[in-house]
Amino acid sequence: MNNTIKSGQSDKAEETFSVTEAVKASLKRRHRKELGFRAAGFSAVCFGFVLVFLLLSDITYKAIPAFHQHWIKVDVTFDKAWLGVEDATSTSLATANYRKALRSSLYAAFPEVKTRKQKKRFTKMYSTNAEFTIKDFLIENPDKLGLKQAVWVRADDDVDTYLKDGVEPGKAGGRIDAMQAVWVQTLQQQSRIEKRFNFSFFTSGDSREPELAGVKGAFTGTILTMLVTLILSFPLGVAAALYLEEFAPKNRWTDIIEVNINNLAAVPSIIFGLLGLAVIINLFGLPRSAPLVGGIVLSLMTLPTIIIASRASIKAVPPSIREAALGIGASKMQTAFGHVLPMAMPGILTGTIIGMAQALGETAPLLMIGMVAFIVDVPSTVTDASTVLPVQIYLWADSPERAFLAKTSAAILVLLSFLLVMNVSAAILRRKFEK
Amino acid sequence: MKKLTLAISLLATSTAALSAGRDTINVVGSSTVYPFSTVVAERFGKSTSFKTPKIESTGTGGGMKLFCAGVGIDTPDMSNASRRMKKSELEMCIKNGVSAVTEVLLGYDGIVIANSKKSKQVVVSRKELFLALAKEIPALDGSEKLVANPYKTWNEINPSLPATKIEVLGPPPTSGTRDAFAELVLEGGCKKFPWIKAMKKTNKKKYKNICHAVREDHVYIEAGENDNLIVQKLTANPNAFGVFGFSFLDQNSDTLQGSKVDGVAPTFEGISDGSYPVSRPLYFYVKKAHANNIPGILEFLKEFTSEAAMGEEGYLTDKGLIPLGEERLNKVRKSVLSLTELKL
């Protein structure tokens, strides 16, 4: 008896001993496994981080030249004969021959420029906008008519790129030949060349001359388009989600609607562009290339994303909240708007920002409705012809002029900052609702 | 409440814009002509009191569809094209009420086969390019049979060509440059085989299939529509060749060189006088019915066809357009300013 008990006890002891033993034996292996998983996860995050860092630094590095522009000082003689004007009235100043005044002043400073070919190479070093710069100057200072005055004008993009590339002074390089290189060197020695911050990149619209091209047109177009998208898709999306979750009966119809919404989220964006062309432009007669149409098309694209995210976050609000509200006598609508919606808001905002970010980078549907276009004037209303930032990036990336390479990267930075601002403001709003 | 007022004001502005006429010129069409017409548009906007025309880059075919959709302020006034308007397109135009169309030949665009300056410039014929890039080529024993393209290096085709792997970066089939390359280079080389040439009359479809099909065994690499990308890849890989428009070679002449095709180098002069074999005409089309109704069209046409723009020393040549030459420019100008109707 004693024996059996003893042996039983020892059995138990042995058993516990062996379990501890087994646990101890496997402990090392399990720790190793966990460590391995942690290391893999950590290195995945690191890898992603390094890639993002590389991408960003590459873009930033390439964008740096776009933020500066070389200017050349020209002693312009506002000669009445060259300009072809007699007095300084505004009408005669508006139609004067500034091209001749500029060129004659340029040749006067460099008497060695004689032949036709030399003249062509020489005047090519100045931006084609130079004559408009001196025009603006004279219209602002009409008292300078007939006098000699130093005016700063933009250098041509070829000269600008040449100087930024840091070629040895006086040596040909890029699209600057030996003759032009010597002229540039002379101008530098006379300290007539200055590198300035390129404000016009942020204050002017598109141009085919890289030294004049700016993002303001595309930036304004993006803001207008996004505004239309937000105004249309946010209230509609949230209302649809709220109705489907809180009020709609659960039957076959709502099932069909749900399947359709999920399908819509996966439809390629160009299809929405075709729809926009066929219905919004051709049927309703809204203008082509307008942010209004772009915004409508993009909101069709964002709606499913917002609805799906909103439904998920409304569903996640605990039923006890609803029951409590109903219990103290709130109506169904008061419950939905006073209790469910505020609690679901952080999730809804996340869904909205994902949808908007998607819409922000879209170009394919905009091609169909005419927003992939060369538009110089900055739009001021939602019906003005306009383009958006991703389209501007696409158009510049496809331009032959080399200086557009830097502009492309700079425009990408602007787009990324726009996205960042959008995300941060959503995060702030979310924080506010979570309190 | 704020949102509501905003929405109402949006609606109000949109209806206001619709009821008024249009004061900007709308242009659609080819992405090859886009860099040229945008330059003219920008100058036109700056130097006149008219608004800067809006230029859309939709591709030649897409542009024609929009252009021929009808007459009225909601249709474009002009369409750019990197090939001539097809008879079927003109018929579509007429069917939709666009009865009178004026054609403008603005100049030429060369297509170059270029490589990095780190390698030697090569002299290649269209026949050799066909043999290097066609999907199927005539059997090597001279019989009238087709075999899958066996060539791996250039010197297998012609001992005088470099002993490097055939590697050509070019545009995808959706691009107009690719169409022109197939038509001018591959078909041009393909025609050099008499029995294939004879096929053009008997079996045109098969002839086109043979001459326009490009290898799919990673020798011809589709590098996307972006010519700048090809330029960058060529500098990184001195053994590769690239196919793109002349303006990109012109802009990167310090790092790239164009191969001589049939003995002629792709230079301004060579393309202009027609001795360089791979060039195509660029056009744009104007609706006669719009010319008198939309303000600025006639002035825009005048600026476009002026000596300062399209002439031999004009600013469009600075952007890489190959000019027409004085005589033809005068002819074009005359027909444009009198809005001569196109007949095909």
Which features characterize this protein?
heterodimer; A: 435 residues; mainly alpha; MetI-like fold; 3 domains; three-stranded antiparallel beta sheet; 18 helices; 4 strands; 6% strand; elongated; disordered N terminus; B: 344 residues; alpha/beta; D-Maltodextrin-Binding Protein, domain 2; nine-stranded mixed beta sheet; two-stranded parallel sheet; 17 helices; 13 strands; globular
Q: Give the count of helical stretches of chain B.
A: 17
Label the overall shape of chain A: elongated
Summarize the helix and strand pattern of chain A as letters: HEHHHHHEHHEHHHHHHHHEHH
Structural class of chain B: alpha/beta
Q: Indicate the mean pLDDT of chain A.
A: 90
Instruction: Write the element-wise H/E pattern of chain B from the N-terminal end onward.
Output: HEHEHEHEEHEEHEHHHEHEHEEHEHHHHH
Low-confidence stretches of chain A: 1-5
> Can you tell me the CATH superfamily of the largest domain in chain A?
MetI-like
Spatial gap, N to C terminus of chain B: 59 Å
Portion of residues within helices of chain A: 55-70%
Sheet with the most strands, sense and barrel status of chain A: 3 strands, antiparallel
What is the percent of helical residues of chain B? 40-55%
Number of strands of chain B: 13
- Looking at CATH, the homologous superfamily of the largest domain in chain B is Periplasmic binding protein-like II
Rounded mean pLDDT score of chain B: 86
Count of individual helical segments of chain A: 18
Layout of secondary structure:
The complex is a heterodimer of chains A (435) and B (344).
Chain A lengths: L1 H62 L4 E10 L2 H4 L6 H5 L3 H12 L6 H8 L6 H11 L7 E7 L2 H9 L12 H12 L3 E5 L2 H4 L12 H32 L4 H13 L4 H13 L9 H25 L3 H9 L4 H29 L3 H5 L4 E2 L14 H9 L6 H31 L1
Antiparallel strand pairs in A: 1-2, 1-3
Chain B lengths: L1 H18 L6 E4 L4 H14 L6 E3 L3 H8 L10 E4 L5 H9 L5 E16 L6 E2 L1 H8 L2 E3 L7 E3 L5 H4 L10 E3 L5 H15 L3 H9 L1 H9 L7 E3 L4 H10 L4 E5 H6 L4 E3 L1 E2 L6 H5 L6 E9 H4 L5 H8 L2 H4 L4 H4 L7 H12 L7
Parallel strand pairs in B: 1-2, 1-3, 5-12, 8-9, 8-10
Antiparallel strand pairs in B: 3-13, 4-10, 4-11, 4-13, 6-7
